[in-house]
């Protein structure tokens, strides 16, 4: 990282005038969050915009967009609102923590307090589970169940584990994620909630209360009275359903060269095993369906030279590139945001080829 850079990477930003969503490259400095447009796999200088952090307030988790559960909301001194989406709960929380630290950079005591809070967990002494469940059912501010897919089956009226954890924190029922997970486990023990699907059902076998509920974007839950499962018939199971049934191993934003127009676009990549597939999603769209993907069985993956533009790459795109060649000889050119990230992706993919 450059001097003075606290954190950098891809986030999806909501537009101010037209509320569309676009990927930008963000750089966090002591008092400012800069964002850049990307062309040809590179950030365009000067920055597209800057967010002054002095006097800024941060909301995380932010639940204002039902189909975008991984949001951070920033509100400046002039009441301008910025909505930023990360690719995973871990990445969102890492950004939120660093931004919060940058906002309070001039207050060392506040920064120290943040570090203590990050690792301190305390369950409130008096909790009314009935009150929590009533609030969860509230039509305007409660949890909104929707159809979700896991391992080839569609489950109606479900919600993901990490979304419930976010909701419990934002409604002040819990002060930390561990506390929210413990609360959610208690709601299951009292038969207010039920796990749905293989991942969440397997977790309840754990003896530790705090491990029975999964703070996970792949684990599904439902209200106990509405647990209905719609199983796809054998005739309906498509190849894509089988592809998406694997366990998520790694996910993140990467730039990818198109096959026809050879232009570069940032996609959210999701690596799955059993079966081994690499899918990519358009982060500007709300529907959670991949726009492409391929089997990793028999594939080859390798890093490309950092000096100059490698063969097969169009435009002045260089640095942190790698290539995946599928079994049917299709070539995918992908760019990570750093050498370390490229190495992590290559190693993760190699294990599944």
Structural class: alpha+beta
Q: N- to C-terminal separation?
A: 31 Å
Secondary-structure element series: EEEEEEEEEHHHEEHHEHHEEHEEEEEEEH
Which regions are unreliable across 5 or more consecutive residues at pLDDT < 50?
Answer: 117-123, 226-237
Number of DSSP helical runs: 9
* Mean pLDDT over the full residue set: 82
Topology:
Elements: E1 7-14, E2 21-28, E3 32-36, E4 38-39, E5 42-43, E6 49-52, E7 57-62, E8 71-75, E9 81-85, H1 89-103, H2 108-118, H3 129-136, E10 146-150, E11 153-160, H4 161-170, H5 177-189, E12 193-196, H6 198-203, H7 209-212, E13 220-223, E14 229-230, H8 239-243, E15 247-257, E16 264-273, E17 277-281, E18 292-295, E19 300-303, E20 321-325, E21 331-335, H9 339-350
Antiparallel strand pairs: 1-2, 1-9, 2-3, 3-6, 4-5, 7-8, 8-9, 10-11, 11-13, 11-14, 12-13, 15-16, 15-21, 16-17, 17-18, 19-20, 20-21
Domain PH: 4-104, 247-353
Keywords: Acetylation, Cell membrane, Cell projection, Cytoplasm, Cytoskeleton, Membrane, Phosphoprotein, Repeat
Protein name: Pleckstrin-2
Structure explained in plain terms:
This protein has 353 residues and is an alpha+beta fold. It is built from nine helices and 21 strands. A seven-stranded antiparallel β-sheet has the order 6-3-2-1-9-8-7. Strand 20 and strand 21 (331-335) form a beta hairpin.
In brief, what are we looking at here?
This protein is α+β, with helices and mostly antiparallel strands. The chain has helices at 89-103, 108-118, 129-136, 161-170, 177-189, 198-203, 209-212, 239-243, 339-350, and strands at residues 7-14, 21-28, 32-36, 38-39, 42-43, 49-52, 57-62, 71-75, 81-85, 146-150, 153-160, 193-196, 220-223, 229-230, 247-257, 264-273, 277-281, 292-295, 300-303, 321-325, 331-335. A seven-stranded antiparallel sheet has the order 6-3-2-1-9-8-7.
């Amino acid at each position: 990282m450059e001097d003075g850079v606290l954190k950098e990477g891809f986030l999806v930003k909501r537009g101010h005038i037209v509320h569309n969503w676009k990927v930008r490259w963000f750089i966090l400095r002591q008092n400012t969050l800069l964002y850049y447009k990307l062309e040809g796999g590179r950030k365009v200088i000067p920055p597209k915009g800057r967010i002054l952090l002095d006097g800024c307030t941060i909301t995380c988790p932010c639940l204002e967009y039902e189909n975008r559960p991984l949001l951070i909301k920033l509100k400046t001194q002039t009441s301008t609102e910025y909505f930023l989406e990360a690719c995973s709960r871990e990445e969102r929380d890492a950004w939120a923590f660093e931004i919060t630290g940058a906002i309070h950079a001039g207050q060392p005591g506040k920064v120290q307090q943040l570090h203590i809070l990050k690792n301190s967990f305390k369950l409130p002494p008096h909790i009314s589970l009935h009150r929590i469940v009533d609030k969860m059912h509230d039509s305007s501010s409660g949890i909104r169940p929707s159809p979700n897919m896991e391992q080839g089956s569609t489950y109606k009226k479900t919600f993901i584990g990490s979304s419930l954890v976010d909701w419990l924190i934002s409604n002040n029922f819990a002060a930390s994620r561990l506390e929210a997970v413990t609360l959610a486990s208690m709601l299951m023990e009292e038969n207010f909630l039920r796990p749905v699907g293989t991942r969440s059902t397997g977790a309840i076998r754990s003896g530790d209360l705090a491990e029975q509920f999964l703070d996970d974007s792949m684990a599904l839950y439902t209200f106990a009275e509405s647990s209905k499962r719609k199983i796809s018939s054998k005739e309906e199971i498509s190849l894509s359903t089988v592809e998406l049934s694997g366990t998520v191993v790694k996910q993140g934003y990467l730039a990818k060269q198109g096959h026809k127009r050879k232009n570069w676009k940032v996609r959210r990549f999701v690596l799955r095993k059993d079966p081994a597939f690499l899918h990519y999603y358009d982060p500007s769209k709300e529907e959670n369906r991949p726009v492409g993907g391929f089997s990793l069985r028999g594939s080859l993956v390798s890093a490309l030279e950092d000096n100059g533009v490698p063969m097969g790459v169009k435009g002045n795109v260089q640095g942190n590139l790698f290539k995946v060649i599928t079994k049917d000889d299709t070539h995918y050119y992908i760019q990570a945001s750093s050498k370390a990230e490229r190495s992590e992706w290559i190693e993760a993919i190699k294990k599944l080829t």
